[in-house]
Design goal:
Layout lengths: L18 H25 L19 H22 L6 H22 L5 H27 L8 H32 L20 H34 L2 H6 L4
Helix pairs in contact: 1-2, 1-6, 2-3, 2-6, 3-4, 4-5, 5-6
């Protein structure tokens, strides 16, 4: 008679066994990122949120808080990619998963390369800011085809669309602000960010940048919470087959 295997909640042969812990990690890490951004508004009030982007907090006394925020953001994105691995079955969905991993790389890179490292921070921004909305849209469509995800399809698509709209909003806001700044400065842009904006300059790029952070985090939180509910529902319906099978002797 063979020796029964020890029951375990995790299995390398069954990626779905780590889906729920990974989703919880995604939620906790993403919430930490949001709280750290909120803390920076209190710790560094000299950076006006209306026209100073989040990355500029690195220029203040609490740059390490910003680094923690980007690191948490990246961990949350990676963890959620792991949580979704067994839920996505289409080629487009798989591509979306890899883009989500790439976006997480960009977010984590920003914790190492702040705005004073122009090339590294630029690459990080390209991967994170551009990669995430594409990944979110592709995954929202792919997940919406699953029966267990159909109730969340509309919410995920709304937030995913808000993600890329906020990027367009940021580009438009930066363009308008630079044109107005150049006009107010006699046709050229100042080399360094001024302490105050010249009269007549409409600046909302800071809010647009924060909308990117919040919409991306909101998408992960919404999808991760649904992943937990879906996993528990599937586990209840199957009656823990991985535990039953591990108790069977040979």
């Amino acid at each position: 008679m063979g020796q029964a295997a020890a029951p375990s909640s995790f299995s390398l042969r069954n990626p779905s066994s780590i889906a729920e812990p990974a989703a919880w990690l995604a939620i906790l890490a993403t919430l930490a990122a949001i709280l750290l951004v909120a803390a920076l508004h209190l710790l560094s009030p000299e950076f006006s949120p209306s026209w100073r982007v989040v990355s500029e907090y690195a220029l203040g006394r609490y740059g390490w808080v910003l680094s923690l925020m980007f690191a948490s953001w990246g961990v949350g994105t990676w963890a959620f990619a792991v949580a979704l691995w067994s839920e996505v079955h289409t080629n487009a969905g798989r591509l979306g998963l890899w883009l989500l991993v790439v976006a997480g790389i960009g977010e984590a890179m920003a914790s190492l390369f702040d705005v004073r490292h122009e090339i590294g921070h630029g690459v990080a921004g390209l991967l994170g800011v551009i990669g995430f909305p594409i990944a979110a849209l592709m995954l929202s469509v792919a997940l919406g085809r699953n029966e267990t995800w159909r109730t969340s399809r509309r919410a995920l698509l709304w937030i995913a669309n808000l993600s890329w709209i906020s990027v367009v909003f940021l580009v438009a806001a930066l363009t308008i602000m630079m044109m107005q700044m150049a006009r107010a400065s006699g046709g050229h842009l100042p080399q360094h960010a001024p302490r105050t904006l010249p009269p007549g300059v409409l600046a909302v790029d800071g809010w647009a940048d924060r909308l990117i952070v919040l919409s991306n985090c909101a998408w992960v939180l919404t999808a991760a919470w649904h992943a937990i509910r879906a996993h528990r529902k599937q586990r209840g319906a199957s009656g823990h087959p991985e535990i039953r099978s591990s108790r069977q002797g040979v």
